[in-house]
Amino acid sequence: MKIAVTGATGTQGGAVARLLTERGHEVRRVTRNPKHPDDVHGDFDNPDSLEQAFADVDGLFLMTPLSGPSEASQGKAAVDAARHVPHVVFTSATNADRGTGIPHFDTKAEIERHLAAVHPHWTVLGPAAFMSNKGFVALPIPPTLKLHLIAPEDIAAMAVLAFEQPARFHNRRVDIASDQLTGPEMAAIRGTEFVEYSLAQAETYSPDLAAMFRYFTETGLDLDIPALHAELPEIAWHSYANWVTGRA
Ligand SMILES: NC(=O)c1ccc[n+]([C@@H]2O[C@H](COP(=O)([O-])OP(=O)(O)OC[C@H]3O[C@@H](n4cnc5c(N)ncnc54)[C@H](OP(=O)(O)O)[C@@H]3O)[C@@H](O)[C@H]2O)c1
After folding, report:
1. Which has the least CB within 10 A, 7, 59, 63, 218?
2. Pair 95, 221: CB distance under 8 Å
3. Is the predicted pLDDT of residue 127 greater than 80, yes or no?
4. Which PANTHER family match (predicted)?
5. How much is the average pLDDT of 196-202?
6. How far does residue 194's CA lie from ligand 1's centre (Å)?
7. Are 36 and 48 in contact (CB under 8 A)?
8. Pocket of ligand 1, candidates 6, 11, 154: which has the most ligand atoms within 8 Å of its Cβ, to mutate?
9. Where are the beta strands (DSSP E) in 63-221?
10. pLDDT band at 248; cut points 50, 70, 90
11. pLDDT per residue over 96-121, tens digit each?
């Protein structure tokens, strides 16, 4: 298959592009600054460039950059530019479709609704917090809260499975996580101490992220990891310990 991958120079798209290539698919890496032989120019601020980047492919891996309120219009324009692409796999966030009130989740929900309304064949992935995030040992969450986490490689495995088994994931939304740990458990794996800071402090640098951590703490994500892994045994889900050790 020939697959266009947005965000291919970033965490999710990079992992997806690498796995697609490993599995023998043809990859079109969409970036604002083409450098790699598989790169094509595409800019979320210029839907015409996306239309060209998405021409004549069998599938599109669509991520949206964190760009505040404009994420929704950029994402919806990207969906429109992909109207001829046979299968769009959009990566959103866990429980983004639940009306969480978290600004960067609600923008993704708007893109999800648009995709489902206008495209005949889509899959939405709802990844949890990335294991690759920096600063996981200092968080505005209580030390007893177990945070849902996902390895970027597991997002890629899920996306590639969706492209390779389109009927199984036809017009489905799947929230995905690899493991679930408390801050102190994550810190112990990293050989350090967990530092809890307040949501008021988090507000001062990002009201959006503070809203997300408040939701995680007060409502909690609805994602049953054992049930998910039982449904998708072909994915070699990483534990956080294995993922960190693999990068040591
Ligand atoms: N971090 C988490 O825990 C987490 C969890 C769930 C969901 N998410 C979501 O994941 C998304 C970010 O994904 P990521 O972490 O994989 O990305 P990333 O590593 O931050 O990389 C950003 C990517 O976006 C591309 N990009 C930025 N602006 C662009 C534009 N105007 N046009 C075209 N491409 C553009 C960049 O490509 P070029 O610079 O090469 O153009 C780059 O490949 C966000 O929407 C975030 O909310 C994150």
Report:
1. 218
2. yes
3. yes
4. NITROGEN METABOLITE REPRESSION PROTEIN NMRA FAMILY MEMBER, NMRA LIKE REDOX SENSOR 1-RELATED
5. 95
6. 27
7. no
8. 11
9. 87-91, 122-127, 129-130, 138-139, 147-150, 172-176, 179-181, 195-196
10. low
11. 999 999 999 999 999 999 999 999 99
Ligand 1 close to Cβ of residue 33 (< 6 A): yes
Cβ 139 under 6 angstroms from ligand 1: no
Across all residues in the chain, what is the average pLDDT? 96
Q: Is there an atom of ligand 1 within 6 Å of 208 CB?
A: no
Identify the residue whose C-alpha is closest to ligand 1 atom 31. Answer: 44
State if residue 13 touches ligand 1 by the CB under 6 angstroms criterion: yes
Given this model, what pLDDT does residue 67 score? 87
Residue with tokens 């889900």: 237
CATH 3.40.50.261 assigned to 2-133+150-177+224-238: no
Question: Residues in the chain, how many?
Answer: 248
